[in-house]
Amino acid sequence: MGPGRINKHQLFYAAILTVLAISVFYDRSVNACYEYQFCLTPLNYSGRYMKDETYGDMPDKAKMLCDGFCHHNSTLRLRCCASDATVKLERISEQVCRYNHLIRGFVIFGEIAKDNEFPFMAALGWRIKNETTGNTTIVYKCGGTIYDRGYVITAAHCLYHSSDLPVVVRPGGFALNDTEAWDLEIEEVIEHPNYEYPNVYNDIAIIRLKTIFYGNPFHDQPACLYDDPSSAHNVTAIGYGNTQFAGVSSPLLMKTNLSTIGNNECQLHYEPDSDVLSDGIISTQICAKDHEKLRDTCQGDSGGPIIKFIKPKDLNPMSLVVGITSFGIGCGTGMPSVYTRISEYIDWIENVTYRTVPI
Ligand SMILES: *[C@@H]1O[C@H](CO)[C@@H](O)[C@H](O)[C@H]1NC(C)=O
Ligand SMILES: *[C@@H]1O[C@H](CO)[C@@H](O)[C@H](O)[C@H]1NC(C)=O
Ligand SMILES: *[C@@H]1O[C@H](CO)[C@@H](O)[C@H](O)[C@H]1NC(C)=O
Ligand SMILES: *[C@@H]1O[C@H](CO)[C@@H](O)[C@H](O)[C@H]1NC(C)=O
Ligand SMILES: *[C@@H]1O[C@H](CO)[C@@H](O)[C@H](O)[C@H]1NC(C)=O
Ligand SMILES: *[C@@H]1O[C@H](CO)[C@@H](O)[C@H](O)[C@H]1NC(C)=O
Ligand SMILES: *[C@@H]1O[C@H](CO)[C@@H](O)[C@H](O)[C@H]1NC(C)=O
Ligand SMILES: *[C@@H]1O[C@H](CO)[C@@H](O)[C@H](O)[C@H]1NC(C)=O
């Protein structure tokens, strides 16, 4: 037995204490993690989540940098171990983005899966029961974006499409009828605390996956979160077009180039509405439209992203999520659609995804 290992009795009590701790302190919105996921210790040092066994084998000096916990599930608690005692200037979502886009020379393991253009694109699936046959099938009704291998960002209003919550996520940007595609089960759905259906503000939610996403090892990078609040960008909306305001219903993933516009311009198209749009278009929203007014496809799925592409020096090309498709007037009208502006929610996203809880 290595130093720091605990014996069976201690393990038993540890298990009881853990169960107690979970039942008393279990905060669903912060206890979200998987092994080796990036994390922030209570002192804001960035690290990775480790199992107790790994921690036990670490030298004492390294153990001192471990602080803060999360619960992977009801039986597995992970510990956040920092690599050094510094608060990084780069925010944690940027560190994750950089890590995911390092140029790696070779692949250590894994089969080469299909090379999709938007590997971070996800479709949210609901379980629908056929009342006649009693069989259940999965129906995909919203889009989402993988921004960390264990997490998908989507629109909160998607959670109100039916009385049930979505149960699976189809990752990888596959066509919905592609036989090579697979689904990942959903562990937890976290709606923004200030979202109030059917109000359109704070239309953002996080989905934590039960298993983490890996696809084509050369090309399965999660998308990055765009933290610039400015408004003029050429973006690409992607989606399956299978929701209300997207008119085309297709199993194929569609893309449309759009330009984001200022909120003042956008406001001209949207009357403040006392019920759902009481304050008009506000800073937590961003609008985009098709300047050519030509496209007959719609501006993506609810919950899907608008993306800006960049090619940083010394890193793989990146796709940055600028917005999440929230609502719109119609398709092919030349009218702007409204998206949840990601830059305004990064603190919340990082809080939910990377912050540990002290025990
Ligand atoms: C860590 O960062 C959070 C969010 O930025 C901040 O509220 C908190 O005070 C910081 N904690 C420490 C110990 O600096
Ligand atoms: C918790 O997660 C671990 C590792 O993924 C798994 O082996 C274990 O079966 C899970 N426990 C439960 C209760 O789901
Ligand atoms: C239920 O299953 C039957 C038999 O396969 C099929 O004809 C019917 O369209 C299904 N209903 C729905 C709502 O999918
Ligand atoms: C319904 O499920 C049964 C058993 O799982 C299967 O044999 C049958 O083919 C299914 N029916 C349809 C219409 O999918
Ligand atoms: C998927 O659907 C598209 C469009 O309906 C069709 O062209 C394609 O052949 C389908 N693919 C499979 C594998 O069924
Ligand atoms: C967007 O693309 C158009 C045409 O490709 C170009 O003229 C324009 O400068 C671009 N706008 C921005 C903000 O990059
Ligand atoms: C859409 O935008 C992408 C990325 O900016 C560009 O490469 C592509 O040529 C554009 N497509 C059209 C049809 O304008
Ligand atoms: C982060 O989450 C904690 C616990 O849920 C909460 O108290 C805090 O206000 C959150 N901070 C932000 C910036 O969302």
Describe this structure in words.
With 359 residues, this protein is α+β, with helices and mostly antiparallel strands. Among the domains are: 11-20 and 113-220, Thrombin, subunit H, CATH 2.40.10.10; 223-344, Trypsin-like serine proteases (Thrombin, subunit H). It is 14% helix and 29% strand. It contains six helices and 17 strands. It has a six-stranded antiparallel barrel. Strand 15 and strand 16 (318-327) form a beta hairpin. The longest helix has 18 residues, at 8-25. The radius of gyration is 21 Å and the shape is globular. The model is unreliable at 1-31 and 243-248 (pLDDT under 50). The structure holds 2-acetamido-2-deoxy-beta-D-glucopyranose (8 copies). One 2-acetamido-2-deoxy-beta-D-glucopyranose (NAG) is lined by residues 43-44.
Radius of gyration using CA atoms only = 21 Å
Largest sheet: 6 strands, antiparallel, barrel
Order of helices and strands: HEEHHEEHEEEEEEEEEHEEEEH
**What quaternary form is this?**
single chain
Distance between the termini: 26 Å
Number of helices: 6
Named CATH architecture of the domain at 223-344? Beta Barrel
Report the β-strand fraction as a percent range: 25-35%
Low-pLDDT runs:
1-31, 243-248
Percent range of helical residues:
10-25%
Q: Main sheet: which strands, in order across?
A: 5-6-7-10-9-8
The assigned structural class equals alpha+beta
Shape, per Cα inertia axes: globular
CATH-defined superfamily of the domain at 223-344: Trypsin-like serine proteases
Question: For the residues shown, what is the average pLDDT?
Answer: 83
CATH class of the domain at 223-344: Mainly Beta
The CATH topology name of the domain at 223-344 reads Thrombin, subunit H
Query: How many beta-strand elements?
Result: 17
Could you say which small molecules are bound to this protein?
Answer: 2-acetamido-2-deoxy-beta-D-glucopyranose
Pfam family, one: Trypsin
Protein name: Trypsin-1
Organism: Bactrocera dorsalis (Oriental fruit fly)
Keywords: Disulfide bond, Hydrolase, Protease, Serine protease, Signal
